[in-house]
Amino acid sequence: MNIFLKKKNYYIFILIYSLLAIFFALYVEHILQIKPCKLCLYQRIPYVLAIFISFIGYNYFKNEKILVLIVIIFTISFLISGYHYGIENNIFEEFSGCAVNSLEIIDKKELLKSLNNNIPSCKQVNYNLFGMSLAGINFLLSLLIVIYSLRILFYEKN
Predict the structure, then answer these.
(1) Which are the contacts of 124, defined by CB distance < 8 A and separation ≥ 6?
(2) Which domains does the chain have, with CATH numbers?
């Protein structure tokens, strides 16, 4: 198979995969009514970037820099989801933005407001798929994408 056709197909795969990941996250949040934690929201950012970069890559598939951007984007996704998965499994401590700290609020109105806008703790696993949290699945899939992208980048030259 021609390397350029393979790259074009790979960018289509990344585009479709990223769209499905975002749609699934929105489905879990809005249809299943499971609130995401802050790290869950941060994990969506690389996918949104990957949608745009893969679209550009499809149109400019001969440019190696676009594939390097895919590697960088999914490395960031791998790191964020790995950190989140580590928090869920008590490997890492939660950063202060993840912890629910409504008990420290003194004002009654602010307390009620904070309870209504309660964001779940990053330690809390609210949804499992195939026995793994979504952060764990994202961790593994991001790693696979990085490895395969590096394979294309270094071992499949024209």
Answers:
(1) 37, 88
(2) 3-155 (1.20.1550.10)
Structure tokens at 24: 């699934």
Residue pLDDT, tens place only, 36-73 = 988 999 999 999 999 999 989 888 777 788 999 999 99
> From CA 19, how far away is CA 51, in angstroms rounded?
7
Q: What pTM was estimated for this model as a whole?
A: 0.82
Measured CA to CA, the distance from residue 141 to residue 158 in angstroms comes to: 27
129 bridge partner residues: 132
Is the Cβ–Cβ distance between 43 and 24 less than 8 Å?
no
In contact, 18 and 38? CB cutoff 8 Å: no
- In angstroms, the CA 42 to CA 101 distance is 20
| Residue listed under structure tokens 């026995």 | 131
Taking Cα atoms as reference points, which of 90, 81, 93, 89 lies closest to residue 40?
81
